[in-house]
Amino acid sequence: MTSTETRNVGKIGDSPLRPDGTLKVTGEFAYSSDLWHDDMCWGVTLRSPHPHARIHSIDVSAALATPGVYAVLTHADVPGLNRVGLEHLDQPALAEDVVRYQGEPVALVAADHPETARRAAKRIVVDYEELPALTDPRRALDDDAPLVQPGGNLVRELAIRRGDPAPTAPVVVALDFEVGMQDQAFLGPESGLAVPDGEGGLDLYVATQWLHVDQQQVCRVLDLPPDRARLHLAGVGGAFGGREDLSMHVHACLLAMHTGKPVKMSYSREESFFGHVHRHPAWLRYEFGATEGGRLIYAKADILFDGGAYASSTTAVVGNGGTLGLGPYDIPSVHVDARGVYTNNPPCGAMRGFGCVQAAFAHEALMDELAERVGVDPVEIRALNGMREGDRNITGQLIDSAAPVAELIRTVRDLPLPPPPDDRPDIRDLPGGASNTTHGEGVVRGIGYAVTYKNVGFSEGFDDYSTARVRLEIVGGEPVATVHTAAAEVGQGLITVEQQICRTELGVDRVVVHPKNTMVGSGGSTSASRQTYVTGGAVKAACEAVRESVLALSARRLGVSGLRLDGDKIVSASGEVLAVLAEVLADEAVEETVEWHHRPTYPVDPETGQGDAHVQYAFSAHRAVVDVDVELGLVKVVALDTAQDVGRAINPDAVVGQIQGGSAQGMGLALMEEIVVTDGKVRNPSFTDYLIPTILDMPPMQVKVLEYADPHAPYGVRGVGEPPTISSGPAVAAAIRAATGKALRRVPVRPEHITL
Amino acid sequence: MRIELTVNGERREADDVWEGESLLYALRERLGLPGSKNACEQGECGSCTVYMDGVPVCSCLVAAGQAQGREVTTVEGLAGDDGLDPVQQAFVECGAVQCGFCTPGFLVSTHDLLARNPSPSDPEIREALAGNLCRCTGYEKILDAVRAAASAGAQS
Asked: Which key words are in the record (chain B) (predicted)?
């Protein structure tokens, strides 16, 4: 079958084009910041300038008196419970008596023009008394540390103990590592439109990762039953974890309910840096004990995550950092302590890779150190210690599907290398590029490797499910399936996958993806690399239910049992075509809704951290090739190649797109991406000062996709989105170490780390 | 103030424009053309790129008043009566679109590149698109799309 034919067919395993592609290239796709409504007004947020302060009073009178202003709201105007939070309800929707980070929302303004609203917001007088701020997470648990939250500064502590409690080894290596704060930097700003329905309820059109959890939070703050606050997914301009928490959702709804008018909010890039959580910075201390041959005997890790002022998903990030923090290795004895703490720094939560990214920098750096100490090469030490199917990981969970660590790392090693630096014809390919800082002098090449594994889906006993409604009917003489889920399409291509599954299961060509909203059951979060698995599973199950119903209907109409569906034909047990779908369905639509749960996970033991915490693991490996100008500390990544086991590629082109994009984000953290926070204040909230990789920074990326089906997952799929973000950065860091001989125990690696 | 300009070949006007508004804001909020995007509104990301008098500009950095009497082409104006521009078609077919928020800017920048240089080398493509940020793709499939559009242009 040629690729053209497979594109037209569009079943699983093909790579049909995304159904929203044309709208996105013509400018017609409606992102959340594009929405518009007759008579709408604009909302803006007043935020705290202080990392920690007491609020004595808020005077809104001058703001309210501004012509064009419809409303100015504070916490006193919140009708319901003034608390939000993904895992802990610890954050006020609008600050009450205390602000705990720079950027915390304090008041809201609605006006007829965004500039009117911004100017009015500046006229709000907040009487702050600054309080001592806790900005060093390493001091958070000290007795004399300022208290950020009333219950203490510890969000979660997780201990993992396995094997020999006092192990010894002939070879011991150790390191301390530090990872800076990364931003998701999705391009579509936080935005949306809240429209009152005139009957005491409203509709919110918003960019998010999980409509139903947003709906719960909106309803709690607005004191509305779920049927009065309907959420609709507007076009999402990327997410990467940064849209798991609320941003403007509740605020726009408060303003809309108060004014009775539709309210649009759209953050500037600067506000966006304050409007969502970031990746946790981390401080990691690791020790490996091994045989003379490099086989691990034990591993110890102490991991500290800075959660910032509110918990967000810190609890789960600590869970991942702890349970997965030693990487995809078989280790007999283990001693891990992971903690997440409150500080007065910006709140941190979900970002692609979720707790594993930080740990991978440490365990991979230490693995290279071990390799060098015992004289084994970096690829073979990983193959030697890599997990295999049938092993138990550090929480004692059986790895009951493919764990091809050795194959992945050897596969990336064997991919073609880029040409050597001397053959380079173009200055734009050298470190410093068109800045003309070198013509090759002082440039040293290095190669680095890394592997990772990441849990797929929600863990530690969370009942993780998705809901799908599939309808089959005849339209214009042709069978058409409509698939309705609330699972957020954020750019990854879930809508394409939903269509492919319907085509595969029902044999139809035409599949309509219903707009995503809360009028169907929860799809769960678009995070944890879980939607193809979980919502894919739900759509598959709903299609199967539809198929059963169609066959039951056919059996009744035809008076025959033992039927099956073959394309649009109803076929008897003997293979005879008895009818076509159009005849059987006629004017009737068959519709089924299925809530689909993945197999259960369990909490870990509170003392030992042992348990079956995760539903599935996904493995990847990277090889980075860098050229470093060792005199100036400039790095050019020349190649960033990867191999990943995806179980089964439902849409191979989209899989490669996910892997390449994820690799770029990991490389960004290794080289350039850091929110610089000084004394609790963000110093670089802009794309001028917070750098993400451009097309000049990114190298060509070879992607080798392995497909070892997971027998426990629908179609054998394995989550795809996150592993590349985890293993790419450590490979880049390793390559720079190889080129420079520097230890490089902090990322992002800055020029001064290389030259000084 | 009132502004009058030509957008995608049509004479357009807008009243009550505040002097501080950008061309981007006027296009998106006053002229019903939200295709140009507002990812940074400070000239760093290129998502708002439009042609003004045939030159690609960040419309967030152009005051709406500066566009008085000028000719502006946005992403909405790239497709012809006979369908998508080859650059648009290539972006769809090569998987260069994920979330798509950067796409309108990349399309205008690529359209301009290929008009100037119908067969760009990879370093030339990278240099020409260095002012457009994408967070989803890692740029590989965007490069594929630009090469494909160049190749389609060479054949037509």
From this structure: 2Fe-2S, Iron, Iron-sulfur, Metal-binding, Oxidoreductase
CB contact under 8 A, B101 and A653: no
Predicted model pTM: 0.97
From the CA atom positions of chain A, what is the Rg in Å? 27
Strand segments, DSSP code E, in A574-615 are 577-580, 590-597
Residues of chain B with pLDDT under 70: 156
Q: Which domain holds residue A232?
A: 32-131+189-236+243-275
Q: Chain A: residue nearest B39 by CA?
A: A187
* Statement to judge: residues A452 and A507 lie in one domain: no
Domain count, chain B: 2
pLDDT of residue A495: 98
For B31, which residue in chain A has the nearest alpha carbon? A36
Q: What is the pLDDT of residues A131-189, one digit of tens each?
A: 999 999 999 999 999 999 999 999 999 999 999 999 999 999 999 999 999 999 999 99
- Is residue A4 predicted with pLDDT exceeding 90? no
Cα A692 to Cα A183, A620, A634, A673, A675, distances in angstroms? 9, 23, 16, 6, 11
Question: Do A196 and A313 reside in the same domain of the chain?
Answer: no
Instruction: Confirm or reject contact between A188 and chain B (CB < 8 A).
Output: yes
Based on the domain organization, do B70 and B107 belong to the same domain?
no
| Angle of CA points A536, A540, A544, to nearest 5° | 170
Could you tell me which of A193, A204, A194, A43 has the C-alpha nearest to residue A111?
A43
Which structure tokens are listed for B144?
């594929």
Residues A568 and A534 in one domain: yes
Interface predicted TM-score (ipTM): 0.98
Indicate whether A25 belongs to any domain: no
| Mean pLDDT on A680-707 | 98
pLDDT at res. A1: 27
> Phi-psi category of B107—alpha, beta or left, where left has phi over 0 and alpha has psi -120 to 50?
alpha
Q: Which residues, including other chains, have CB under 8 Å from residue A604's CB and lie 6 or more apart?
A: A158, A160, A319, A323, A395, A460, A610, A611, A613
Mean pLDDT of chain A: 96
For residues A260 and A293, state if they share a domain: no
Residue in B36, B104, B138 closest to A663 by CB: B138
| Same domain, residue pair A312 and A433 | yes
pLDDT in tens, A339-359: 999 999 999 999 999 999 999
Q: Which domain holds residue B132?
A: 86-155
Domain-ending residue, one of B42, B77, B112: B77
Same domain, A512 and A382: no
CATH number at residue B90: 1.10.150.120
> Domain check: are B69 and B90 in the same one?
no
Pairing of strands A229-233, A202-206: parallel
Q: What is the pLDDT of residues A224-251, one digit of tens each?
A: 999 999 999 999 999 999 999 999 999 9
The reply to whether A65 and A211 lie within a common domain is yes
Mutate to test the interface with B, among A22, A23, A24 (most CBs of B within 10 A): A24
pLDDT band per the 50, 70, 90 thresholds, residue A421 = confident
- A258 and A110 inside one domain: yes
CA A342 to chain centre: 22
Chain A nearest-CA distance from B35, in A, is 4
Residue A505 reports pLDDT greater than 90: yes
